[in-house]
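Q: Could you write out the predicted structure for this multi-component system? I'm mainly interested in how the pieces pack against one another.
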Amino acid sequence: MKKSILLKATLLLSLSLSSLGFTSAALANDGKKYRWKLAETWGPNFPIFGEATKNMAKMVKEMSNGRLDIRIDSSNKHKSPLGIFDFVKSGQYQMGHSASYYWKGKNFNILFFTTTPFGMIAPEQYAWFYHGGGMELMQKVYGKYGILSFPGGNTGNQMGGWFKKEINSVEDFKGLKMRIPGFAGEVLAKLGAKPTNIPSGELYTALERNTIDALEWVGPSLDLRMGFHKIAPYYYTGWHEPAAELQFMVNEKAYNSLPKDLQKILTVAMKTSAYDMYIQSTHASGKNLASLQKDYPNVEVRSFPKSVMNSIVKANDELLTEFAAKDPMTAEILKSLNDYQRQVRPWTNLSDRAYLDNFDAK
Amino acid sequence: MKKSILLKATLLLSLSLSSLGFTSAALANDGKKYRWKLAETWGPNFPIFGEATKNMAKMVKEMSNGRLDIRIDSSNKHKSPLGIFDFVKSGQYQMGHSASYYWKGKNFNILFFTTTPFGMIAPEQYAWFYHGGGMELMQKVYGKYGILSFPGGNTGNQMGGWFKKEINSVEDFKGLKMRIPGFAGEVLAKLGAKPTNIPSGELYTALERNTIDALEWVGPSLDLRMGFHKIAPYYYTGWHEPAAELQFMVNEKAYNSLPKDLQKILTVAMKTSAYDMYIQSTHASGKNLASLQKDYPNVEVRSFPKSVMNSIVKANDELLTEFAAKDPMTAEILKSLNDYQRQVRPWTNLSDRAYLDNFDAK
C-alpha cells in the first residue's frame, strides 16, 4: 500500500512539475539560493569603481531571478581595503573587487594585468585579454592561489598627475616627492624622484602641506571631487597607466560549487560590468574635464617635454629588461604584451589616431 | 481515500520541491521554454558580424539554462538580407541583426544610430548611447514600429576605401563611380562622384571590370578576404563611418511576453555581444593589417589631402544643415550627437590621442 501511494505521488509530482512548465532543462538547476559576499577596496558610494560592483551584482540578481545574491561590503565594513586578495584566497569572501597591481608584493607578475607604462590603450588591451592570450596568462598567475581573476572595469587612459611646479627637464624629478604607486613609481625613482604611496583620503592634505610635491590619482573622472586643481596648477597627460583595468576575483572553490547556469550568469555579468565601467569612465571624464576647464581656467594642462619623455621611456625599458631577466614568467608576460601591442598599434594609428589627426584640430 | 492520497501527494510534492531546493523566487519563473528565431542580414559563417549573433544566442542559452533558445537564420535561409526590419516589425521573427542605416528609406532619422561622418569614435559613441541620451532617442524613432533597438556590435573606425587611382584634389571625385552607401554617398555626390550600392558578393567583379572605380567596405578586419587589395592599390583612411554600430532588433510584443529574468538575460547578452564584437574587430583589424602589409607591400595606405578633406567636411555640414531644417526629429538627434561629441572629444584628445602622439612614432 505504501508503495502504491509513493508511486502515485511520484506520478503526481512529475505531472505537477510538467503542468508548472518545468522541463528537464529547468530541473538541471539545483534551484538553491546562493548568498555570496563581495569585498571591495573602495569606500561606500565610491563613484564609478563602486558602481561597477553594484552593476554586476544587480545584473546577477535579476538574471538569476534571485538565485545568486551578492552582498557588497565596502572598506568601511571589512576595514581592510588592501586585504581583498587574502579575503578571496581564504574563502572568507567568495568575491573581491580591486586592482591587480595592489598584489605585486605577493607576486610581482601580478601587476602586469592592470596596465603597463607605455602599454596598450583600453580597446587594445581588452583585445589582448580576450584574443591575445591575456586571460590565460592571468589565470596562470592567479591559479596557484585558488583564485579566478577577471577584468573588472577600465578607467581609460590615466592622467600623469598634478604638479605644483612645472617639469621642464628630467632634472626637475630629482628629489621630487610624488605619490605614484606601482611600476611607474620605480621608473621615476630611477630618475631621482622619491615616489610614495598615500591612501586616497590623505592625498589632498599631503599635497596642501607639501608632504608631497605632486601626485597622480586617476583622471578627470575621479580627480575633480578630490580638489587637487585648487592647490596644484599643472595637470600633465599620462604615460604610466594607459588603460588601468580593475579586477574581479572569485574564490575557485566557491565558483565550482555553483550550477553551470549561475557560473555563466556571473562571468557574463562581470564582463559586461567591466566594459560598462570603461564607457562610464569615458563619459565622466568628458563631463568633468569640461567643468574643470570652465570653472578653473587657470589649470595648465600639458604634456612633458620630449627630452623628459625620452628619459622616462629609457628608464622604463631598462627596468623591464632587468625584471624579465630575473623570472621566466615575467619574460613570458612581457613578450606577450609587447608582441600584441606591436600587432594591434598600427591599426589604432591607421584608424582612430589618423581620423582624429585628420578631422579634429587640437 | 482519493483525497488522502492527493493530500499526501501534495505534501510529497512540496517536500520534494524544497528538497530539490526550489524557493519561491525560483518558482516565480514561469519555467516555460521559449523558442525564438533571429534573422540576420549576413550569410552563413560570416566572420565577426555573424559571430556576434552566435555569441549572443550562446550566452542566452547557457544563462537561461535552455529556457530561451534562439535559432539564427542567415540570409541563405530567409532570402531577404534587407528585409530584417520588416521581419521583426511583423513578428515573423522575434529578433533581427543588421545595421540601422539600412532602414533610411523607411525613416531617414534611423540612419544616425549606426554612425555619422566626422562623428564619434567607438568608446565615445557607446558613452552617448548609454549616458548621453542615445538609447532614448533611438527608442523614440523605433518605438512607433513596435521594435526595440539595441547596439549590436561595433566595427571600429572604417577605412575610407579602395581606389584604383590616387585622389589628389577634390576634382578627382568628379565622375568617380564608387560603391559607398548611406549618408556618405550623398556627401560624395555633392562633390560630383557617382555613388552606388552593390551587394557585397558582386563587389570584387565590379571593381575588377571597372563598373566602379572605387569602393568602401569595412576595414582590414573584413576587407582582406574580399581580395580588393589585388586590384586597387590605394587604401584610404576613413571619415565616413568612425564607429559603425550594428543593431539587434527585438519585436516589442515578443519581448513583453518573456518573464523578467529572461528579459534581463536577453538585454545583457545583446549588450555584451556588442562590446565583444568591437573588441574582436580591433583584434582582427590589427592581425589582418599586419598580414596585408607583409604579403602586399605595394598597397599604398594614405589619407586624403587636406584640401580634399576640407571639401568633404564642408559638403557634409551643408547636407546636415539641410536635413535638420526639414525635420525637428532630425534636428533633435543631430543636436544631441553634436553636443555630446563636443563634450567628450576634448577628453579623447587629452588622453588616448595625446598618449599616442607623445609615445608612438607613426
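A: Regarding packing and overall arrangement: Chain A touches chain B through 93 residues (CB under 8 Å).
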